[in-house]
């Protein structure tokens, strides 16, 4: 019944054969195809001038956490808040290969002042703890994680296990790496046990969800380029039928990635687009469908229902949803966590793609995401270019920050 409806609804869907262009080979970073795993579905506060009687950064950050809970009660505004206006301009290729060290300058700059002050002292005193607390809060590590980290360090200083400021900073660095290393960040890449014994070809589906403007379409394009470059036949599904330009933008990325794309009509049913993409993928030997989705509908309920439906349709044989990646914009800091919860209500998210880490000092948001959402950060965006998406590497990340 649903099949028949979907088949009828797909009559306006076109498959666009992308113009073959040379694949842009990605330099630098960790190759997307390196780590495989089996099938798995499973404030900074305002930085402007603050009057002397204004609340401190820490107070603002703590009260921001309170408002976040209140904000969750609201529906439509939640989906609007913090979403940067979509920009359709063609992404410029980076001047240098993306690496944590080369792209995390802003976040490192913020921390270095505080850590320098801590290290420059001969002893650990009250000001040391104030500096560390302010550094972590301003980097958007979050109040909960900051309290946990500093509580543990205080105990170790008290017991004599940490002696001196240098050892303290090194211990903090080690604790951050440990905190970030607990989640399984491996991606369900093609070839990692896709065939589970069912008859017929199966198609892996990756869904990309998140608020408008966070970088979903760009991320789909970057992932497609990576997969294409490693020899995987990729089909893109332009599931953001809500925004006309999203399909155009994805087509551009498809051309660049030498991938094909299935598009629907503007305002059409996104589930139909994904359904059609899976069918075409199965009959034409594509290994993976990468599906973009809309980040904003008329209200939260519509969005949740729409995403549930897309996931359900995508997961029906021959389709199989192996990744649901929640794309978050690092520059929105803690606000992004509020938005994230809407998507967690709708679909079982397998991991986070954190974009625009190159443009923010709030690199600590990685810690808050993993701790508060309980989700692994799997990929990070370090720029607008095709090579600026790399797998999350806790040690390299923390090293670059310090
Ligand atoms: P969508 O609405 O979620 O699909 O977002 P888009 O993919 O259209 O991206 C919105 C803007 O963010 C575009 O200008 C992208 O080039 C930019 N963008 C995406 N990822 C990154 C990133 O990692 N770093 C930077 N600096 N910009 C990014």
Textual characterization of the structure:
By secondary structure, the protein is α/β, with parallel strands linked by helices. It has a domain at 1-42 and 53-58. It has 15 helices and nine strands. A nine-stranded mixed beta sheet has the order 1-4-3-5-2-6-7-8-9, sandwiched between helices. The protein is elongated and about 70 Å long. The site of guanosine-5'-diphosphate has 22 residues, from α9.
Q: Please state how the strands of the largest beta sheet are arranged side by side.
A: 1-4-3-5-2-6-7-8-9
Count of DSSP strands: 9
| Most strands sheet | 9 strands, mixed
Low-confidence stretches: 1-88
Number of helices: 15
Give every kind of bound small molecule, once each: guanosine-5'-diphosphate
The overall average pLDDT, rounded, is 78
Overall 3D geometry? elongated
- Secondary structural class: alpha/beta
Helix/strand order, N-terminal first: HEHHHHHHHEHEHEHEHEHEHEEH
What is the strand content? Answer: 5-15%
> Level of helix content?
40-55%
How far from one another are the termini?
57 Å
Estimated radius of gyration = 22 Å
